[in-house]
Amino acid sequence: MTFHLVGHFRALADHRVRYLIVGGVGGRLQGVPTTTGDLDIVPDPDLDNLQRLAVALSGPNTWKKPVDSVEFVQHPVVEPSEFWSERMTQYRTVNGGIDVLIELPGVGPFDALIRASRRYELAGYDLTIHVANLDDIIRSKEYADRAKDWRALDSYYEARAVLAEQGDDATLTPEDLDVTMPPPGHENDDDW
Amino acid sequence: MSAMAEDLAVEDRARRRAEAAHWRAKAAAARARARTLSWESDPELRAQVKAILALSPVERVLGLQAESEVFASAVLIRDLPGDPTAPGTGVAGAR
Question: Of A117, A158, A160, which to mutate for an interface test with B (greatest number of B Cβ within 10 Å)?
Answer without folding.
Answer: A158
